[in-house]
Amino acid sequence: MTSLTSVAPSPVSNAQPAMVVDDVVKRFGRGPEIVTAVDHVSFNVAQGEFVSVIGPSGCGKSTLFNIIGGLLGEYEGSVMIGNDRISAPHPAVGMVFQEESTFPWRNVIDNVAFPLELRGVAKSERMDRAHHFIDMVGLANFEKNYPAQLSGGMKQRVSIARTLVSEPKILLMDEPFAALDEQTRLLLGDKITQIQQQLHQTTLLITHNLTEAVQLSDRIVVMTYRPGRVKRIVNIDLPRPRTSDVVGSDAFGHYVAEIWNDLREEASRGMADSESAANRRGSHG
Ligand SMILES: Nc1ncnc2c1ncn2[C@@H]1O[C@H](COP(=O)(O)OP(=O)(O)OP(=O)(O)O)[C@@H](O)[C@H]1O
Ligand SMILES: [Mg+2]
Prior knowledge:
This protein is of the alpha/beta class. Helices cover 37% and strands 22% of the residues. The strands form two sheets. It has a six-stranded mixed beta sheet with strand order 6-7-8-3-9-10, sandwiched between helices.
């Protein structure tokens, strides 16, 4: 394996930011019931960079994802893509969700071609482009299959291809692999890395899986448990091109151990919080 000393300077370090998240605050509810889900969060993502946001359950990751995706228009601070402040879905952004989102009544190629169909792209071009992205996610032999005939990991690859087919400048993914077993997750991670290397796709991944975050990212934004703030931003200087083999390396282990320290602290706070809420309910009931 390539040693860490041979790491080339990151090709993205001097790049223009593709996205700037600046002092974003999001509260839900009002009065004594108010919940601050995202609290003064700032970071940016450079063009071609792969950034993960990691944090315990309830720390505001999906809220942030929805704000950046333009699905939650009212918030404080700004998310800028180019000169646009995001308050509605932006054409440069493609989203992949945690839940299974393939259309069961369409086969793989018609699922992937769907966004092009909506835009009125002619059939032959639509099929060409869909083929291209189906190849890229490794589903070339499954174009005629229906989602019910595919595994969970394959269905997520269909969703990813369907988002990529629109060639978004920025790819946003919220826990896309959460429902998958660890081996499938690692191998799908390899696919994502290959695609990243081919397309230099600017990507923001939301996850609570540390292995996945270190395997895939150039940088990791570690969030605190409620209110969700940025605890730390860690550069992952593991060599690229990367494969899932990197998971066995010492350097990988160091990153995991280092970030886990932060995460454990936050996850424990989350656990204590839910236990005390349960106790309060118990004493009232
Ligand atoms: N629409 C909403 N109305 C009220 N509160 C909300 C709403 N959406 C999220 N919240 C609250 O905001 C906080 C953050 O939720 P969010 O879903 O962003 O967390 P998360 O980090 O994505 O968690 P998970 O890892 O479990 O998906 C939680 O306390 C949640 O209850
Ligand atoms: Mg979430």
